[in-house]
Every structure is written in structure tokens, then in C-alpha cells.
Amino acid sequence: MDTTIPCWIDGALRPLDKLEVHRRGLHHPAVSVFVLQGGKLLLQRRALGKYHTPGLWANTCCTHPHWGETPLDCARRRLREELGITGLSLAPRGQVEYRAEVGKGMTEHETVDLFRAEAPLDLALSPDPAEVMQTRLVGRAELLAEIDARPEAFTPWLKIYLHKHGAQILDGQAA
């Protein structure tokens, strides 16, 4: 399996090993998807075998694009790979940049293309156990209260997304 991802080095995108990118905290592109179902956000709990933030709750899915892969194609691919979700219409929600320590001496420094999708109530999930150990639907107010009460149970990026970019991602029209 190819473990290289695009990374900005000296102002140009170059392929670099994903673990090295995170150990060095290098700036790289990413994709995050937020699927809503009946007004609730679909969360995933990261599998315990993940190289960082295992067992923590995150948005529906997030990943790094392959070399030459568009953000939209990446988002579709990762929804399918992680959760078995296909056929949703993904609406772009803009881009954000963040930097966060993710444990084990690693840092995420990402420019993230955000996508949101509305899912039917009968959406079928088929999580890959190597990626996802649990899923659940949660309302926004309930989720924010949980994050305030137990911040250690959630990934740094989910907290950043909701506290700094919640309206951009979850409210109103697509970007």
C-alpha cells in the first residue's frame, strides 16, 4: 500500500511518506466529510489500530488525497473505503487550515477541503473495522455539550471544526 501523500515543501507539492509528514508537522492537503442524517451528524470512532488518535470520535470521515486525486474524488473514495457509503451528493463547504498535536509526537498541519452531504434515513453503513470501530448519529448541541464535558474523547480536528468553522460546515448553503 502506498503511504505517500502530497506535502508542501519549499512552496511546491511533493510526495512524502505520511508518517514523516506527521512527525515533522509538515503542511499538507486533506479532505473532511460531514454526513448529516435527519439533522444529526454521523460520527465515527477511529479504530484502535490507527497510527494516531485511536479510539477517538471524529467527523464522518477524513483523509489525505492520493497524488493527483481531486478533493471530491478523494472524499467519495474515503466514504466508500471507511464506511461503505456510496451515492451521496457531496457539497463543497470551502477550505480551512489548522495545526494540531495528535499524540505520539505527531502534528497535523492541514489545508482541508470540506464536504457535507445529506443522507437518507435508511442509509446503509458497512464500516471497515481496520478504520472504524463504532459509528453514531448525534445532534449538534448534544455533540458540543459532550465535547465540553469530555474533550479527550474527540479528535483535535473535530473540536476545531465545530468550534471555529461549525457554521461554514453545517449551516446554510454550500460554499
Sequence stretches where pLDDT stays below 50 over 5 or more residues:
none
Q: Separation of termini?
A: 34 Å
* Rg, Cα atoms, Å: 15 Å
Q: Quickly count the helices.
A: 4
Strand content: 35-45%
**Approximate shape:** globular
The biggest beta sheet, please?
Answer: 7 strands, mixed
Mean pLDDT metric:
94
The total strand number stands at 9
Q: Sketch the topology as an H/E string, one letter per element.
A: EEHEEEEHEEEHH
Instruction: Report the helical percentage.
Output: 25-40%
Classification by helices and strands = alpha+beta
Overview features:
175 residues, alpha+beta, 7-stranded mixed sheet, two-stranded antiparallel ribbon, 4 helices, 26% helix, globular
Summarize the structure.
The protein is α+β, with helices and mostly antiparallel strands.
Give the SSE layout:
Layout: E1 4-9, E2 12-17, H1 18-24, E3 27-37, E4 40-46, E5 57-58, E6 61-63, H2 71-83, E7 91-103, E8 106-119, E9 132-138, H3 140-149, H4 156-170
Parallel strand pairs: 3-8
Antiparallel strand pairs: 1-2, 3-4, 3-6, 4-5, 4-9, 7-8
